[in-house]
Amino acid sequence: MGSVNGNNSGWQEGEGVEKQQGWKALRLRGLRQRWIFNSIVPIATLLVLIVTLFSAGVSNYYYGTMQKGLESRAQALANSFNEYFMDNGFGSYYQKAVQSAESFEDKDCIEMQFINASGRIQVSTSGLTAGTSPRTDDIARALQNQPMPYQGRDLETGEEILAVSYPLLANGRVVGIMRLVTSMRAVNRQVLLTVLVILLVALLCMLLVVFSNLLFINDVVEPVAVVTDAAKRISAGSYGARIENRYTDELGELVDNINNMSLKISQNEKMKSEFISSVSHELRTPLTAINGWGETILEDLDDQEQLRRGIRVIVKESRRLCNMVEELLDFSKMEDGRFTLQIEPVDLQAELEDAIFTYQELFRQDGILLEYSPGDDILPMIPGDPERLKQVFCNVLDNASKHGGAGKRITASICREGAAQVVRVRDYGPGVPEEELPFIKQKFYKGTSKARGSGIGLAVCDEIINLHGGAFTISNAEGGGALVTIRLPE
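Above: the chain sequence. Below: its structure as tokens.
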């Protein structure tokens, strides 16, 4: 059974890998298809349009040039006949037509025909057509003294031709036609060759575009696939996973951002785990004390001294629990944007002195001296939330006793600096390790400190001061100890 399960597991894992590779290939193919459609199809359409227009232009040029040349030549020959030979009678006209046909220089490529009024060929440079009737439109129009070229099939041979007919006049009456006919085979071949060359050039351009686009899309799609797979691994829980950055462009910047995101998520997850562990421990400790002392008191209600001592412990631990719950509620409000202030005029010095009075006796019982320096200036009221500001002062003082209580001394002061009121609280303990200073205000962060707490108190203080438009900074003081500076605008 164990072997079967193992084979099953291996088969499922192999199937998962194959499925992932299949999805990757499908995704890459989809990206390539979209890229080709969006970039190559417009270029191909443009090339087809250019080839079509250019081919049409080439055809019009060749056919138009050929037609104009044939028309001008036929008109010149017909005008010569009308001017010099048509007034001397039919015999002179026929004799001159035969001479012209025999002496025509371009008889190899152009056929000269003399056609009578009934449309039958009388004289031709090609003896094969003499006596035939072409019956094309140009002949009918020429007999009506309306010369018009004809391009189409020869009704006798089926060959594609270009023909131009001009009337021969005697006493103002059409008695015959002089017609020039040439085959379209050579010009069609030339047009076809030119169009083929154009198509070949367009095809080479298209292949170059496709090849360059494929190279470019491979350079884009492959890294995108790598980044996508890494992002999926991170979203699946592989926090801290990193991608090797081999790129120097925007892709490199994207990889750096994803690596930073992965690192920060990993850090946040680590801090969250530590926070849950710390809060669980912090909650268990006072609850254990409350539960233990509650049971002790119930067992012996007659011992007044022990009763008072137990109640004091229960009250102290309950207060600590309340503070922790308040911090958690504040943190929850910070996370979902419900953390707000009730702004009113505040005497900042009075709020600070209130917090100091609250903690002085508590610190004295723990052997810690809390010194306060009020300064010489009379400070004006500032806009703020008195409850939140007092919360900050209490949290800072409590933090100083936890982390710097070993120095047995804490100093607090308030003064006016420019357009701001500045509160400083310093302890004389070991201070904060330099490498932890940039992170000490982050939520859940506790660093190497073993002091009890949730790790979100300073984050809440920083948020409160920022909402007041002020600055909350933590540094190491000269001579040792940590220094908290709170700067609030007036």
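The longest strand covers residues 160-170.
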